């Protein structure tokens, strides 16, 4: 609501003497620009009246009243400014009333002397909009119509309000918003006009002149009021001591004095005034955060039915930007909202304009727009509001209450213009449609609005007929609505949460919110209605409409309070302390005359805020209480600890059981032991009890006492209830299991022996179905054998204890008796609970550390229940789960009903809630439960859970561990899991490393959650199996799981030639024994995909006892300089170089060869140009590729050839040959290069295979500029493919990385070594250094000397 005006109307109050009224004549106050009630001063008016622009001053109008109308005018923009005069006149011959002196209607502080510049008028908003209000008396029709038969027939006359601006322009004048609203009052008081042209004002010569014609009767005005809207307050507070007239726009018939037992001055009304009402000034009750309560918000693009309208700005800005504008012809203009639930809707608000902006209007009243609600059959339910033609020439906010409509589940709101006058005539626009509930639910600031007042209606002569109605207006008093409508249960929606920050506590109350009584409130109310008259006791606030009698016969004992009087019938207690109390009453509608209408029911409400708001506790239906029925929610408790069973035997009956000593180590219990006979049923049954809200049932149960139950019969124990004295029985809680739709998944009150092998306390909040005046309970076992014994100890049925003692105490009439280790009124733990859990179920893990119960034999219930945990700072619960499968030991699980449920409990397992995510409602001290609702029995539908981890997100920016600091892997604080991991030496490692070995299960190393950024690196040393033998099975995979994801993914996916790899072919982050059977440093740059969300990383090796791997030097975070050139590990942000490499970035100082040539003929092994060759050897397995041997790659696993770093600054080409018969594009050969020591690789060429063709191929490649560096490594490799499928062998021969430009420094070689210098010569095929041909020292001997290649432009070449 933008501004709300509130009005109280009171009729026929008692007379008063010595009336006191405030002066209601004022100018330029905080709320009033001009007001005159013509009563405030004797003989003279409180304001001065002057001649203005030629008008004369008239005497005060008479105060007689025949027909009274209140006229409200919204001042147009031209009537708002500095120096404005107003005139009331009657045509044709009535003398003019006085013109008031000029008044400034733009601000509340100054008298204006300037004239607004109307030619520059704009329609910008301004808070100084000033409505004008006055009472006018005439002969025409009115609310109280008056006819004088002694007068001649009336003629039409016109009453006009004019204003006259002063004659000075004000250059600083800012035009207020334009709010014209001219209204026709009957047919003898016409539209009120405002003239802004000084030329139409009367000249001085016209003063006193009369026009021709005549008139019938006379007219009068009273209470002239021009409201100041420049500063609208948000609160109104008036104790009338003294009264502040600025707070009240009108208060006819009101006097101020101490009367009606008021503590101080009060506003008093009596029957002498023709009208008794009071209207407050406008208040700004707007809120900003109401959007959370919206039921519907305008989105004309979806589900809106529109006819004759379109999106446009034709009518100006109605609210913001575009609006829905209706220009269509005929009766086609209609818009309807989507269907909503009208039972929840309480208010519709929208911005509306008719003829606004550049849109047309001719003022025809038939062009009004009707707002109504209709059902799905397009039948009108009721009219909400009628929007008049002349009221919305300037767009404004319309806020209208909606009636409660209980019998319609769906309805919609429509706007309809039945008459328009034709295309583009009487155009209207609507925007910003919103539907809100009756009372705010979620908006915090919307809940702190309250209307508070003290009222006394019983101090007059006839108080029973008094009635006051509190109304409000959101359109400056034009229309009024009741603040609250009467509403019966199920006919309204919403709650009321009043608050007040400015108050004075009533007598007897104190505290910040006046909620703390000075004296303690009583905790018990017992009212038997005895005595001779109905006098409220100390526990009763008041009783209305009742008498003390036997008119309804004897209801309980003696007389009763019989509500049979006229007027309101109500019984209200005083404030009670109900912290540990239930409430009830004997209040039937019984043998008295039967009610005929459902609205004559009796309601039992309660209030926790001193009677400001009431909430339904119980509804007494008229058909259910024709006879007296006990409604007692108090003192109805069953408590048996079996030691006093003799005294309490009347409350309990036992069939096939007996009171035993020391059954299953319990001193006293009711046990069921023995052989079955005559198909009898074992029963433990209570007598009838009255059960109500907040009741629980608690008992201790043991089944079998450690001995197994038989598997041949249904020997479970059922807890049941009956509300018809044992004729029909039902489970207290029915099972609700998947796939059935359940609000809460649970197994019901059916107890299996596998869950109760030891004494276990069971606590059950009793559901609504068990509530009633005569409820019985029973524990039943229908079938059993000799070994199927069970016992019950300590049975309690009664009032619930605080938080049900969190499942760690006995409940005794609302008080907890806590178990050992727990304390307080609700049995909180006495010591700190674990806030983390890491259950890897490894050989060193003890389940008792984290788990209360682990149940899951081949039969019975399968469940895993943790101990209570402190999860106030926890973010996630993570675990691995497998259900069923195809193996002999783990199968089935094909049906949803055989799935596993994960739940949590905040009360020690009393109630369980399905866990989808760790929501705010579960933070506290919960326990968790995994359980399988159903399974097919022994050997079927098995399931397993592993690596349960409860913790909080840490969002590590850096993870670093070299495993040198502790003997326990998790002590470093960066790992979430390292299943069975130990720290030690592995495969000739110099320092301790993390070893994953010697376990049959899967091996996992999982980091805590990381928050990585693009450009970070993942660095680690890995060794898989410590062997050079390649193995397809049991590789180690590096994976990641992004937060919010649904599974692990490889950090790098394999990408082969047939895939779209964008030049980034790789085997992915999969590490096999053989290629990674030695220590190797891996560095993976973090790409955008890994930096989108926080994630965890996992090294994972499938299970198997013989398989193992180890990690070292793990570093994840911002890279060190050049990633240490992969010649060292990044530690603490700096490089820790390996071997002979030096700080700071571990770059090698060794010279690199300028290119290379290898024909693979050197002593049956590749030349020293190769860093590694996997899966290959020298030979002719593919035949002769070029000449002689070739590099033949036919190994089972990885096949690759990687060069040492080469200086390719001056290189341009290379040669390669391949062979054999491939059958798949993925068997091609990938040639790539690295300039950062194998951290990253760039594609040079994919040699695609010629399918089913083994011909030789000569390849020549020009090196791109990016491949030319002083340390370039080349790699030929063939993808592993999928699952070890056969792939073609291939050969490589005559690899030449040639030179176009030589080393500028030249070279020299005297061949003193065993082999030619590879840094000098490209090709020395079959040539060896030795003394030959009479040489002095060694020379390079070759049969055909021309086969010795020299660098072109070489200098200092020795003799050959």
Automatic annotation (TrEMBL):
Cystine residue pairs:
801-811, 818-827
Q: Which Gene3D superfamilies match?
A: Galactose-binding domain-like
Residue span(s) of domain EGF-like: 797-828
Composition skew (Basic and acidic residues), residue ranges: 138-157
The record's annotation in PROSITE patterns points to: EGF_1, EGF_2, EGF_3
User: Where does the UniProt annotation locate this protein?
Assistant: Secreted, Extracellular space, Extracellular matrix
Does this entry carry the keyword Membrane? no
Key words, A-Z: Calcium, Cell adhesion, Developmental protein, Disulfide bond, EGF-like domain, Extracellular matrix, Hydrolase, Metal-binding, Protease, Secreted, Serine protease, Zinc
Q: Which InterPro entries match?
A: EGF (IPR000742), Reelin (IPR034968), Reelin_subrepeat-B (IPR049419), Sialidase_sf (IPR036278)
Provide the residue span(s) of the region labelled Disordered.
117-173
Q: Which family does it belong to?
A: Belongs to the reelin family.
> What the protein does?
Extracellular matrix serine protease secreted by pioneer neurons that plays a role in layering of neurons in the cerebral cortex and cerebellum by coordinating cell positioning during neurodevelopment. Regulates microtubule function in neurons and neuronal migration. Binding to the extracellular domains of lipoprotein receptors VLDLR and LRP8/APOER2 induces tyrosine phosphorylation of DAB1 and modulation of TAU phosphorylation. Affects migration of sympathetic preganglionic neurons in the spinal cord, where it seems to act as a barrier to neuronal migration.
Per UniProt, subunit arrangement is: Oligomer of disulfide-linked homodimers.
Protein's name in the database: Reelin
The uppermost taxa in this organism's lineage are: Eukaryota, Metazoa, Spiralia, Lophotrochozoa, Mollusca
């Amino acid at each position: 609501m933008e501004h709300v005006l509130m009005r109280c109307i009171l009729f026929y109050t008692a007379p008063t003497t010595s009336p006191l009224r405030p002066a209601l004549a004022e100018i330029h106050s905080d709320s009033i620009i001009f007001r005159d009630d013509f009563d405030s001063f004797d003989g003279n008016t409180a304001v001065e009246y002057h001649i203005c622009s030629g008008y004369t001053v008239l005497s005060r109008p008479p105060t007689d009243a025949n027909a009274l109308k209140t006229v409200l005018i919204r001042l147009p923009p031209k009537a708002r400014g500095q120096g404005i005069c107003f005139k009331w006149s009657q045509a044709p011959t009535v003398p003019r009333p006085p013109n008031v002196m000029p008044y400034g209607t733009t601000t509340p502080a100054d008298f204006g002397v300037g004239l607004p510049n109307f030619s520059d008028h704009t329609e910008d908003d301004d808070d100084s909009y000033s409505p004008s209000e006055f009472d006018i008396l005439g002969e025409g029709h009115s609310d109280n119509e008056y006819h004088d038969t002694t007068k001649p027939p009336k003629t039409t006359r016109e009453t006009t309000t004019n204003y006259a601006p002063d004659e000075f322009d004000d250059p600083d004048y800012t035009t207020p918003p334009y709010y014209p609203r001219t209204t026709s009052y009957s047919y003898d008081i016409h539209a009120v006009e405002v003239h802004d042209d000084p030329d139409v004002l009367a000249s001085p010569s016209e003063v006193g002149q009369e026009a021709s014609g005549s008139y019938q009767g006379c007219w009068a005005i009273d209470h002239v009021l021009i409201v100041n809207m420049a500063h609208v307050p948000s609160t109104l507070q008036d104790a009338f001591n003294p009264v502040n007239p600025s707070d009240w726009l009108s208060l006819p018939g009101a006097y101020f004095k101490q009367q009606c037992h008021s503590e101080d001055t009060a506003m008093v009304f009596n029957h002498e005034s023709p009208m008794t009402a009071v209207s407050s000034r406008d208040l700004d009750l707007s809120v900003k955060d109401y959007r959370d309560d919206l039921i519907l918000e305008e989105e004309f693009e979806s589900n809106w039915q529109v006819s004759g309208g379109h999106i446009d700005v034709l009518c100006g800005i109605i609210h913001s930007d575009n609006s829905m504008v209706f220009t269509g012809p005929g009766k086609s203009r209609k818009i309807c909202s989507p269907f909503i639930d009208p039972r929840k809707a309480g208010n519709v608000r929208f911005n509306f304009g008719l003829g606004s902006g550049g849109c047309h209007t001719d003022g025809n009243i038939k062009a009004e727009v009707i707002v109504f609600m209709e059902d799905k059959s397009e039948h009108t339910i009721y009219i909400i509001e009628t929007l008049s033609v002349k009221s919305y020439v300037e767009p404004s906010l319309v806020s209208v209450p909606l009636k409660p409509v209980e019998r319609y589940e769906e309805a919609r709101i429509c706007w309809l213009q039945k008459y328009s006058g034709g295309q583009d005539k009487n155009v209207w626009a609507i925007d910003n449609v919103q539907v809100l509930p009756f009372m705010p639910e979620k908006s915090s600031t919307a809940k702190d609005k309250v209307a508070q007042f003290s009222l006394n209606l019983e101090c007059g002569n006839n108080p029973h007929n008094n009635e006051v109605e509190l109304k409000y207006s959101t359109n400056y008093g034009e229309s009024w609505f009741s603040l609250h409508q009467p509403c019966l249960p199920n006919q309204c929606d919403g709650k009321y949460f009043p608050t007040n920050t400015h108050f004075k506590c009533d007598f007897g109350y104190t505290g910040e919110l006046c909620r703390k009584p000075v004296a303690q409130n009583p905790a018990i109310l017992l009212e038997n209605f005895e005595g001779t008259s109905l006098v409220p006791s100390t526990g009763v606030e008041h009783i209305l409409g009742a008498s003390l009698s036997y008119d309804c016969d004897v209801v309980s004992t003696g007389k009763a309070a019989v509500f049979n009087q006229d007027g309101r019938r109500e019984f209200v207690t005083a404030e009670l302390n109900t912290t540990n109390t239930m409430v009830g009453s004997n209040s039937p509608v019984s043998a008295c005359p039967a009610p005929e209408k459902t609205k004559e029911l009796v309601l039992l409400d309660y209030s926790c805020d001193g009677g400001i708001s009431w909430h339904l506790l119980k509804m007494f239906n008229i058909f259910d209480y024709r006879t007296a029925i006990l409604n007692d929610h108090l003192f109805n408790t069953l408590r048996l600890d079996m030691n006093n069973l003799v005294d309490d035997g009347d409350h309990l009956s036992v069939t096939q059981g007996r009171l035993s000593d020391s059954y299953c180590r319990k001193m006293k219990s009711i046990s069921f032991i023995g052989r079955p006979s005559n198909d009898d049923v074992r029963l433990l049954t209570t007598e009838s009890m009255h059960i109500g809200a907040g009741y629980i049932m608690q008992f201790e149960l043991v089944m079998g006492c450690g001995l197994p139950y038989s598997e041949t019969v249904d020997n479970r124990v059922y807890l049941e209830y009956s509300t018809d004295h044992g004729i029909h029985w039902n489970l207290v809680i029915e099972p609700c299991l998947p796939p059935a739709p359940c609000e809460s998944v649970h197994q019901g009150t059916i107890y299996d022996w596998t869950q109760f092998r030891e004494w276990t306390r069971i606590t059950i909040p009793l559901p609504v179905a068990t509530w009633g005046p005569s409820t019985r309970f029973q524990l039943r076992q229908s079938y059993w054998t000799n070994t199927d014994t069970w016992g019950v100890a300590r049975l309690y049925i009664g009032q619930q204890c605080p938080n049900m003692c969190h499942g760690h105490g006995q409940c005794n009439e609302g008080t907890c008796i806590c178990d050992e280790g727990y304390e307080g009124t609700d049995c909180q733990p006495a010591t700190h609970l674990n806030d983390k859990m890491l259950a890897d179920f490894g050989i060193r893990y003890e389940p008792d550390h984290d788990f209360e119960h682990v149940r899951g034999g081949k039969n019975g219930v399968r469940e895993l229940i943790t101990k209570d945990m402190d999860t106030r700072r926890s973010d996630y619960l993570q675990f691995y789960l497998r259900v069923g499968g195809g193996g002999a030991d783990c199968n089935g699980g094909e049906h949803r009903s055989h799935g596993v449920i994960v739940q949590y409990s905040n009360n020690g397992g009393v109630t369980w809630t399905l866990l989808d995510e760790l929501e705010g409602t579960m933070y506290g001290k919960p326990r968790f439960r995994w359980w399988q609702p159903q399974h097919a029995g022994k050997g079927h539908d098995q399931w397993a859970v592993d690596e349960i981890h409860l913790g909080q997100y840490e969002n590590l920016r850096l993870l670093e561990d070299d495993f040198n600091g502790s003997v326990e892997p998790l002590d470093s604080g960066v790992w979430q899991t390292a299943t069975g991991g130990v720290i030690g030496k592995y495969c000739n490692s110099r320092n301790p490393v993390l070893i994953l070995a010697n376990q049959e299960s899967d091996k996992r190393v999982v980091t805590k959650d990381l928050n990585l950024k693009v450009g970070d690196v993942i660095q680690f040393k890995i060794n898989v199996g410590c062997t050079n033998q390649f193995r397809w099975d049991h590789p180690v995979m590096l994976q990641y799981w992004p937060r919010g994801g649904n599974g692990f993914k490889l950090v790098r996916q394999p990408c082969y030639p047939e895939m779209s790899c964008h030049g980034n072919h790789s085997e992915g982050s999969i590490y096999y024994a053989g290629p990674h059977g030695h220590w190797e440093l891996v560095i993976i740059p973090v790409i955008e995909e890994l930096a989108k969300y926080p994630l965890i990383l996992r090294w994972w090796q499938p299970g198997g006892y013989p398989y193992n791997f180890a990690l070292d030097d793990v570093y994840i975070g911002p890279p060190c300089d050049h990633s240490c050139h992969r010649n060292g590990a990044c530690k603490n942000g700096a490089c820790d170089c390996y071997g002979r490499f030096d700080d700071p970035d571990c770059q090698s100082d060794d010279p690199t060869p300028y290119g290379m040539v290898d024909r693979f003929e050197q002593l049956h092994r590749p030349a020293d140009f190769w860093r590694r060759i996997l899966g290959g050897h020298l030979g002719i397995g593919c035949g002769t590729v070029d000449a002689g041997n070739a590099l033949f790659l036919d190994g089972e696993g990885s096949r690759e050839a990687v060069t040492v770093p080469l200086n390719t600054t001056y290189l341009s080409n290379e040669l390669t040959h391949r062979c054999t018969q491939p059958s798949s594009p993925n068997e091609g050969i990938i040639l790539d290069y690295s300039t950062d020591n194998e951290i990253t690789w760039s594609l040079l060429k994919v040699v695609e295979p010629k399918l089913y063709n083994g011909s030789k191929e000569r390849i020549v490649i020009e090196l791109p500029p990016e491949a030319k560096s002083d340390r370039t490594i080349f790699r030929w490799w063939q993808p592993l493919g999928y699952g070890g499928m056969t792939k073609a062998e291939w050969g490589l021969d005559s690899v030449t990385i040639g030179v176009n430009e030589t080393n500028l420094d030249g070279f020299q070689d005297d061949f003193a070594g065993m082999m030619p210098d590879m840094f000098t010569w490209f090709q020395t095929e079959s040539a060896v250094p030795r003394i030959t041909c009479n040489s002095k020292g060694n020379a390079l001997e070759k049969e055909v000397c021309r086969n010795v290649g020299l660098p072109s432009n070489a200098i200092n070449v020795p003799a050959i």
